[in-house]
Each structure stands twice: as structure tokens, then as C-alpha cells.
Amino acid sequence: EAAVTQSPRSKVAVTGGKVTLSCHQTNNHDYMYWYRQDTGHGLRLIHYSYVADSTEKGDIPDGYKASRPSQENFSLILELASLSQTAVYFCASSPDWGEDTQYFGPGTRLLVL
Amino acid sequence: GEQVEQRPPHLSVREGDSAVITCTYTDPNSYYFFWYKQEPGASLQLLMKVFSSTEINEGQGFTVLLNKKDTRLSLNLTAAHPGDSAAYFCAVSASGGSNYKLTFGKGTLLTVTP
């Protein structure tokens, strides 16, 4: 069965600090995604990647960086965390872009104080 | 780009009643449609994937209707039970180019009371 794991599952960060969220998939999927979920906004795409060592901007990339060091791993980096980045972050993977089902990880709840 | 409006944001029904959630989308070239279910504190799980060539898809206890003319997608839970209580999200994907990503609706929080 498809498996996407995320770490940490929850985190409290201070404003201005650096935060790294990690995602690992064992699906052998080419595509990986980072979304944030806010109440009343659904899921919004931050960054995505279709191959190792390459990332692409999604709809709301400002304030976030991404890193794809291998096919299995995809990280989201907040260099200078801000209060507005408090949200739940989901990682997902899929075999292809758009037409294929995306499989989601359990989410990371980030609180920036 | 694609915009997806999902209604209603909250829905409360009694056990055994039907529940209907509707999404309207703007890109007539949209071709792939998804419904996800998110139980409290959990991740998103695929409920159904629909292609534009089919209009009615039936799952276990629910039906998905696609009206391409009106660019509308709906999820109909025919006889809701408390285990259906969750947030439901539609997602739409156009085919080709930069529009090939998923655009999600804002979600519907469904509560089914015994």
C-alpha cells in the first residue's frame, strides 16, 4: 500500500526561527507535493517536485523553500518562520501530474509563536 | 487559473438522510475530478476519482455526479451514518500545461447525528 510519512507530526517554532518539515515516500512515485491547510481555505500548493534535485513553485511559495535530495525524500523549509505560517502541512506523492491520485501523508501541525 | 467553489461549508444531517455537496469549477477543460475524505485529525483519503467521460459514479453509499455543461461536480451520500462525519474536499485537474495541477475546494464539514 502507498505510504507517505512526515516528520515531525507537530512542532512549535519561534518567529524568525528556521523550520524544516520532512516527507518520505515508499511509493516509488516521481511527483511529490507540499500543501498547507488552513481553516476555510482547503489545501493550497506550496511547492512540488517531479524529479530529484529539482523543485517547482506552486501557488503560494513565498516564505518557503523546498528540497528534493532523492526520489523518496522531499523537505519544506521555512527559513524565517512567521506567525502567518501557522497551519497544518501535508505532503503527498503521485505517479504523475494531475491525472493520478495523490496519496497524502498524516500531516504536520505547525504552530509559530 | 482554475477556481473551485465548494458548497456548503458546513452540513448537518440526521442518520439515514441524504447529504449533497457540490463543487463548481471554472475551467471547461478540466478532465479529472477527485473527492477526498478527511476524518478529524487525520489525513486525506481518496473517496473517488472521476474522469470527464463518465457522468455518474457509484461507490459504497455514495454517488458522484459530473455535469460538464454546468461545470459542476457533486457528491451525494445516499443514507448518511455517523461514520460519514468528516470533512470532504473536491479537487479538479485540467489537462495539459501549467493547469495540470489539482485545485481543491475549501471543503465541507459534514456532521451526521444519530
Description:
The complex is a heterodimer of chains A (113) and B (114). By secondary structure, chain A is an all-beta fold. Chain A contains no helices and eleven strands. In chain A, the strands form two sheets. In chain A, strands 2, 4, 5, 6, 9, 10 and 11 form a seven-stranded mixed β-sheet that branches. A four-stranded antiparallel β-sheet of chain A has the order 1-3-8-7, with no helix packed on it. In chain A, strand 7 and strand 8 form a beta hairpin. The mean pLDDT of chain A is 93. Chain B is mainly beta and 114 residues long. Chain B is built from no helices and eleven strands. Chain B is globular, with a radius of gyration of 14 Å. Classes of the chains: A mainly beta (113), B mainly beta (114). Chain A binds chain B through residues 40-45, 48, 58, 90, 97-99, 101-107, and chain B through 6, 9, 31-32, 34, 36, 42-46, 49, 89, 91, 93-95, 100-102, 104-107.
Query: Got a strand count of chain A?
Result: 11
- The helix content of chain A is under 10%
Distance between the termini of chain A: 37 Å
Determine the structural class of chain A based on helices, strands and strand pairing. mainly beta
